[in-house]
Amino acid sequence: MSNLTYFDAHVHANLMDFPLNVARSSNDTGLGFFTCGVTPHDYLELAPQLTQDNIRVGLGAHPWYISDERVTQKDIELLLELMEQTPYVGEIGLDFSSRYCVDGLQDCKLRPLQRSAHVQQSFHATTSHECSRCTPLEALMRC
After folding, report:
1. Residue of 137 and 10 predicted with greater confidence
2. Smallest Cα–Cα separation from 120: which of 83, 90, 94, 65?
3. With contact defined as beta carbons under 8 Å apart, do 122 and 89 qualify?
């Protein structure tokens, strides 16, 4: 990853027509990216495909998909299970705009995440003294 010219820290490759082609061409041009899906199922599809050195694949539960219930409670349970397998989580379902934060739906669906020991450990790691001195890109490149 050290030979990259640019790094995009928020990509939804699952919404691209040909994510594998994008991954290959991005590496050729010195671009790296962090991608996460909009549902936990996207991770299961993307992670085995996008294994290039310039790419990190994370889990996701997009807030818009939670608000309109395309991400169900079972999806959140799957997210929690998959969190044990990957160090990267890109979307955790939070959007506080009035358009998507309706009737406490996000809070209700994400309550299990608050209780997850893995999330608490991740939060602690990203707020530790060591990590507070590096940029998000540097933190990603260390993993």
Report:
1. 10
2. 83
3. yes
Return the beta strands (E) in the chain as ranges.
6-11, 31-36, 55-61, 89-92
In angstroms, the CA 100 to CA 34 distance is: 24
Note the residue count of the chain.
Answer: 143
Residue 78 has pLDDT above 80, yes or no: yes
Q: CB–CB of 60/90 below 8 Å?
A: yes
Which residues, in sequence order, are CB contacts of 49 under 8 Å at separation 6+?
Answer: 19, 20, 23
- Residue 96 exposure: Cα atoms within 13 Å on the Cβ side: 0
What are the tokens at 56? 């990190």
16 and 22 in contact (C-beta within 8 Å)? Answer: yes
Contact 83, 120 (CB under 8 A): no
Q: What is the pTM of this model?
A: 0.68
